[in-house]
Design goal:
The complex is a heterotrimer of chains A (324), B (351) and C (280). Chain A is mainly α. In chain A, 78% of the residues lie in helices and 1% in strands. The longest helix of chain A has 39 residues. Chain A starts with a helix and ends with a helix. Classes of the chains: A mainly alpha (324), B alpha+beta (351), C alpha/beta (280). Chains in contact: A-B, A-C, B-C.
Chain lengths: 324, 351, 280
């Protein structure tokens, strides 16, 4: 329990630190967001004045940061000049979509990489393993952008899958089952792109971690005792490899989140990626900060989850932190 | 020993590929900026050895393309007009290695343009744009990686060698940078810098931004190497002869970081090339008309291009050998490090 | 065994005098608890010039820390170390740095005390390079004479340490340590990592150097038999304190302390026969 609290506190510190960093970067920006807002005819001058008062645009950085934090407590997370709305409702929807994509891709990628990596590690150096190595190498050297675009070209040419977006035009009229089906169809391309980009490194690292464990003296000793192969693999080898694998899991979430940024934009999936890009081009400060904070939230959350699983799985960590 | 040879081979292969890009002006038949509004979206030309009458020619040749009857964007070959491929011919001016004025190009044709990879909306030769764009993207990757490793080394060495509060502060900062998914961090940094800049400014801006993003992981690695090197007896012995901190770092400790940094370089360079591509593809990187591998692909964002002009996708496949080279380099460096451990293959499988 | 020295030596000023040396480390366990370890807990001894003091104790009794403190490479928590009449603990950092060449340390494992990326010549002339006093040619000449003094041939000069044997490496380490003509040589388990026959060779080299150069040695070891062979005086260390100190004969035949007795009992039989004095 104390471990959990410590890790939570650490995660919170990271989130706060990142948000401060993001605000700090914003001081680098030339031009005042606010002047651009004034030029925008759609926003009434009273709104501009009210926002200025609320977010303290003329005040120094710490005051601005404090107002932003305050707005989070009120559920707003700042104000979007481009969308003329508080940031939180905008980003929450997008965040949910990104999460949907990333979680699915993570699960799928691991579901494929884990068995493949183990299978490969068992046959280390032999032909099947080498073939797989070449296969992963081939995937690795193709840029993610090329993969995503290639999948789009494929979809366009065959017409089997929708080429972008998250829902068909008449989505609202569908029955629930039909809605789910539609969603799944729209998810195929981006999820495939994400999985394909993450898979090769994942397989390689799983293979390396498992191969290391399979080499360990304690396993050879167990084999010498005549313990059957299946048991050796699942009850001896895999738990020992859990440590690096779980750390790898935390790391893979980071790469998948980064990957999702690009793929969402290319495939018009309405996640954090496209809105972040828009906000950058429109100089919409609070959306940018909000987008960064959300993506960090997911990464930190994912790593926290991995840490906790590791804590539960690896007795060494429990004894180290419990010992006084 | 074998590992060292493999490394050398990959280095040579990469060197050749980079050599072609460095001499892009020579290998590219045309100026990448040069437009030909009468030939938008031309497909790649085919080389022939046998002409329409069945004659075999010594030189390969191409037919010029003309619009098909009734179509506005479908082309067919015109058997009446054929152009033999010539080598080392005079063409557009360029500067070899950036300063030597030159006009000789590796290949081309006398009275027509040879489009190896087709042309884009403005009739610009995609192949030339690929080669010159390679200069931009690869340079961004290399220089960005250099910057990152420099920052990472300095931070890591300072944290590891001096320890104390410096170590704490720097490592906490590194944690913060690692807490962000790196592409988001990259975009965030780019976001807060001026958007409308000249191509040259954009180039250096991109390098600075990319370089500033990824220092945390190399810093941690450098720090751990420095921490363990600091405790070595030969370092203590040198202190015993009156060495200063600067001497110890320079002569004994920093050389220990070289292998770690080299491996990191082989991993970071392709990653940074991809970062530049992502930025340029989305319009945040190198702006037109300066070509880069990223903005070469940006026309593919349009559905119509995706459907009708498949050859615009080709550059993304032709850049694969470069990434393969870096992958091979990274693998062989890893192998070199592992060479001292027992060969796992000898130990067989579980059964 | 070393011959008994004349009593006139006793009247000389000690080269090294250690008084109440204390060194504590703060350790953080992985759980975050702070612990304090006392590596040295009030150590005191003296060494007369031209003699050898052996500090004998088991592993973990803080011996290496002692070597580092005396060599000005670590700061003790409290206490004083008088070298040629000056307390080196009180000196400023750049004074200490100037003093270090006079007190040299020979480490246990020559494989780690020589930079594996350098070749022998570079390793040997490093002290000269750091002192910035000589031209390259003169440095090479001095390197040759150092090699000669420790019995190494000059053909090893271009080779990296990995190509030398353990004994050769330790000789190289000794040669390097002698480069700046130190007054005190601290041997921190300098023989323990060597093969038995090589141990004897290096021990003889050390004794020969002592008699020809008048060197003073502080010999830190766990090997009581080796200490008896090389030293004039033995100090027995246990848990950071000196529990007994005296001339070799007295320690061997009239041990007062339990630790000393245990160490004596632990000397293997075969070594005992080589040193009949131990059995009396």
């Amino acid at each position: 329990m104390r471990y959990l609290l410590r890790r939570l506190g650490h995660a919170f510190f990271l989130l706060v630190g990142v948000s401060i960093l993001a605000f700090l970067f914003s001081t680098l920006a030339p031009g005042n967001y606010f002047d651009e807002m004034r030029l925008n005819p759609q926003i009434a001058p009273e709104t501009v004045a009210a926002l200025r008062a609320q977010y303290g645009f003329d005040k120094p950085l710490p005051a601005r940061y404090a107002s932003w934090v305050n707005s989070i407590i009120h559920g707003e997370m700042g104000f979007s000049f481009a969308y003329d709305s508080p940031v939180a409702p905008l980003l929450l929807v997008r965040a949910r979509n990104t999460l949907l994509l990333t979680v699915t891709a993570t699960l799928l990628a691991w579901a494929i990489a884990l068995p493949l990596g183990i299978w490969s590690a068992e046959r280390l150096g032999r032909l099947p393993d080498r073939l797989l190595s070449w296969g992963t190498a081939a995937l690795l050297v193709i840029p993610d952008l090329a993969l995503a675009l290639g999948l789009l070209v494929f979809a366009v040419r065959t017409g089997w899958l929708p080429t972008g977006g998250m829902a068909s035009v008449d989505f609202e009229t569908f029955s629930t089952i039909h809605k789910l089906h539609d969603l799944a169809l729209h998810m195929v391309l981006p999820v495939t792109a994400l999985v394909l980009s993450a898979l090769p490194l994942l397989v390689r690292h799983v293979r390396a971690a498992v191969a290391d464990v399979l080499n360990a003296p304690f396993l050879l000793a167990a084999a010498g005792h005549g313990i059957p192969r299946r048991t050796l693999l699942y009850r001896y080898a895999l738990p020992a490899a859990a440590n690096p694998l779980i750390s790898l899991f935390g790391f893979s979430i980071g790469t998948l989140l980064s990957g999702s940024l690009l793929i969402e934009v290319v495939m018009s999936w309405p996640g954090l990626g496209p809105i972040l890009l828009e906000a950058i081009l429109a100089r919409d400060l609070y959306v940018v900060v909000g987008g960064i904070v959300f993506s960090t939230l997911f990464l930190v959350g994912g790593n926290l989850f991995a840490d906790l699983v590791l804590y539960w799985a690896d007795p060494r960590i429990r004894t180290e932190s419990g010992a006084r | 020993m074998k590992a060292r040879r493999t490394f050398a081979r990959w280095l040579v292969a990469l060197g050749l590929l980079h050599g072609i890009v460095i001499f892009a002006g020579f290998f590219a038949p045309y100026d990448p900026v040069e437009q030909d509004r009468k030939s938008p979206y031309l497909p790649p030309m085919r080389f022939h050895l046998v002409d329409a009458h069945g004659h075999l020619h010594v030189r390969p040749f191409v037919y010029s393309l003309r619009l098909r009857e009734g179509s506005f964007d479908q082309y067919e070959e015109d058997p009446a007009q054929f152009h033999p491929v010539k080598f080392f011919l005079r063409g557009a001016r360029y500067r070899l290695l950036g300063f030597l004025p030159c006009r000789i190009h590796f290949f081309g044709a006398e009275r027509a343009r040879i489009y190896l990879l087709g042309s884009d909306a403005y009739g610009r030769d995609q192949f030339s744009r690929f080669l010159v764009g390679g200069q931009v993207s690869l340079a961004a990757g290399l220089l960005g990686a250099g910057l990152t490793l420099l920052i990472g080394l300095c931070v890591g060495a300072m944290a590891g060698y001096y320890g104390g509060w410096r170590d704490n502060v720097l490592m906490r900062l590194a944690e913060l940078f690692l807490a962000l998914p790196w592409l988001y961090l990259l975009f965030a940094l780019r976001a807060f810098l001026p958007l409308a800049v000249s191509p040259l400014e954009a180039f250096f801006l991109i390098i600075a931004v990319i370089g500033a993003v990824g220092w945390a992981r190399p810093a941690r690695l450098a720090r751990s190497v420095v921490l363990s090197a600091k405790e070595r007896d030969f370092v203590r012995a040198a202190r015993g002869f009156g060495a200063t901190n600067g001497y110890l770092l320079r002569r004994h400790i920093l050389p220990e970081t070289s292998s770690v940094l080299l491996t990191q370089a082989a991993i970071l360079i392709p990653q940074y090339v991809l970062a530049e591509m992502a930025l340029s593809f989305l319009g945040l990187g190198v702006p037109e008309p300066l070509p880069s591998w990223g903005n070469l692909l940006s026309s593919l964002q349009q559905y119509s291009v995706l459907v009708s002009y498949w050859w615009m996708y080709l550059p993304s496949l032709i850049m694969v050998p470069f990434f393969l080279g870096y992958l091979g380099l990274a693998s062989s460096l890893h192998e070199r490090g592992e060479a001292y451990k027992i060969d796992r293959r000898n130990l067989g499988t579980l059964t | 065994m070393k011959a008994e020295r004349s009593s006139s030596y006793r009247d000389m000023q000690p080269l090294l005098k250690v008084e109440n040396l204390v060194k504590r480390y703060a350790k953080r366990s992985l759980a975050g608890a702070r612990e304090e370890l006392s590596a040295l807990d009030g150590l005191s001894f003296t060494i007369l010039p031209g003699t050898t003091l052996a500090v004998v104790g088991e592993s973990g009794s803080g011996k290496s820390t002692l070597g580092l403190c005396v060599a000005c490479l670590e700061y003790p928590t409290s206490g004083s170390i008088w070298f040629e009449g000056r307390d080196i603990v009180e000196l400023a950092e750049d004074e200490r740095r100037r003093l270090r060449p006079q007190i040299q340390l020979i480490y246990q494992d020559p494989a780690t005390s020589l930079n594996p990326r350098w070749n022998t010549l570079e390793i040997l002339i490093e002290p000269f390079v750091l002192q910035r006093k000589f031209e390259h040619e003169e440095m090479k000449q001095r390197a040759y004479s150092l090699l000669e003094r420790v019995g190494l041939s000059s053909e090893i000069l271009g080779r990296p340490p990995a190509e030398l044997s353990g004994g050769q490496r330790q000789r190289l380490a000794i040669a390097r340590a002698l480069a700046l003509e130190p007054k005190l040589l601290i041997l921190d388990e300098a023989l323990s990592a060597l093969d038995c026959s090589v141990q004897a060779q290096i021990a003889n080299l050390l004794m020969e150097l002592q008699s020809s150069l008048g060197m003073t040695y502080l010999f830190i070891t766990h090997d009581l038999a080796m200490a008896a062979h090389l030293a004039d005086e033995i100090a027995v260390m246990n848990r950071g304190r000196i529990v007994e100190q005296g001339p070799v004969e007295k320690i061997l035949h009239q041990p007062q302390n339990e630790t000393t007795r245990q160490l004596l009992a632990a000397v293997p039989r075969m070594t005992r026969t080589a040193l009949p004095a131990l059995d009396q």
